[in-house]
Amino acid sequence: MEFLVVLLFATCVYLWLKGKSYKSSLRRIKSQSPIDSESLKTDSALTCDECGERFGHAWGGIGMAQHKWEKHGISGKASFNGKVVEFGPGLNSQLPEEDVRSLEVEVNRPNPDHIRVPSSSALSLGTGFSELDGPGMFQRVNRYGPQGEVLYLVYSSAHQAYKVGISRPHKLGDRLRMIRVSVPDARIDGTAVFTSRQNAYEREQKILEENKDYKYNGIKGDQAGRSEWISRRPTGTRFTSPKKVEEVFLQDASAPAQELDIQDRYTVYMVYSRSKSAYLLKYCRSDRLSIKLKAIKEAVPDAELVSRFKVERSTKAREIAVKLNIESGSYISSGRRDKYEWSEDPKYVEKLSQWGPDGTRLS
Questions:
Q1: Does the model's pTM come out above 0.70?
Q2: CA distance 11 to 13
Q3: For the residues of 301-328, what is the DSSP string, one character each?
Q4: Do 238 and 163 fall within a single domain?
Q5: Which of 7-16, 179-188, 228-237 has the lowest mean pLDDT?
Q6: Sign of CA dihedral 23, 29, 34, 35
Q7: What percent of the chain has pLDDT above 70?
Q8: Which residues does 87 contact at the CB level (< 8 Å), separation at least 6?
Q9: Is 346's pLDDT higher than 50?
Q10: Last residue of a domain, one of 222, 254, 286
Q11: Domain range holding 290?
């Protein structure tokens, strides 16, 4: 028995020494070959030195070169898979067809690390295309969150043709930029937003099937999705134009706030007396308003209810009544009771005149 105890103790000591030796060796290796974790991080996004527009890893230098030519008139070239694409006067800038599919896959692949996040000062997709960067379009394409998918309709006036396709919301600008490599006048004619990528894909295929007799073959370059162009605008799917989206957004933003349906539990009311040429403002429970008015008429027979509004809580109704009477100099504190006086020219008249005697807001 004693032998077993000694053997167990010796084993524990041995393992402890081995662990200590391993930690010492590890610290020595780290000190000899330090690894800076920050040096392993790379920022694959490119930034335009003219305007600050950023291009992610998928589109990279091609998007930058095209952007500089179209937006700033600066010619240049970029490469993809070793193939050079030039941008400038009179150049037909197209990617070799064998590289198009791989680039399109990269552009549309979900990658949360490279999703462009709009600044807090404005809601914008940040695509660089003015018709897509309004707050209305941002709100529209993101209405279903990260799982949503955009079914877009592109139009080219030069070809008099339409193209349908699907895109993640944050990739819509990249997709249009890709199409413009082959069709420079391409623009987003409308969008429809679906709750999932699968639903958007099924609708896209349905549109192409319905319009297979109107297929347009005048587009060169697979980066424009030449198999998805048709010679008529598809029907049956509601594509809303970016212009209409922004108009509706502005209308909604400038519309007056919707009237709340407040429970008619308490009421702040105003009565007027011709004989006194004065107003009186008080509050009470709504179901006791007729009793309160009867009591006022016993003292002032020509007193008439001219305005009131609904309040959901008694404490809030009292606070409003006290505040408005204090502002008009018609409030008197009598011990623990509030006393409201008649006033010939109270400040609350203008505020209360927005409601009728039935508690509804007047137009």
A1: no
A2: 5
A3: TT-EEEEEEEES-HHHHHHHHHHHHHHT
A4: yes
A5: 7-16
A6: negative
A7: 66
A8: 65, 66, 68, 69, 70, 75, 76, 77, 78, 93
A9: yes
A10: 254
A11: 266-352
Looking at the fold, whether 130 and 248 belong to one and the same domain comes out as yes
Domain's final residue, options 210, 229, 254: 254
**How is the chain split among helix, strand and coil, in percent rounded to 5?**
45, 20, 35
* Euclidean distance between CA atoms 118 and 116, whole angstroms: 6
Task: Calculate Rg over the CA atoms of the chain.
Answer: 36
pLDDT: is 28 or 327 the higher one?
327
Q: pLDDT by residue (tens digit) across 75-88?
A: 777 765 556 667 66
Average pLDDT of the chain?
A: 78
Distance (Å, rounded) from C-alpha 181 to C-alpha 66? 8
Between residues 152 and 12, the one the model is more confident about:
152
Instruction: Indicate whether 36 belongs to any domain.
Output: no
CB distance 272 to 306 below 8 Å: yes
Q: Which of 149, 162, 156 is nearest to 202 (CA)?
A: 149
Say if residue 237 is exposed, middle or buried (CB neighbours under 10 Å; 0-12, 13-18, 19+): middle
Question: Over the stretch 306-320, which tens digit does the pLDDT of each residue have?
Answer: 999 999 899 999 999
Instruction: With respect to residue 173, please indicate whether it lies within any of the assigned structural domains.
Output: yes
Mutual angle of helices 97-108 and 172-182, in 10-degree steps = 160
Domain annotation covers residue 206: yes
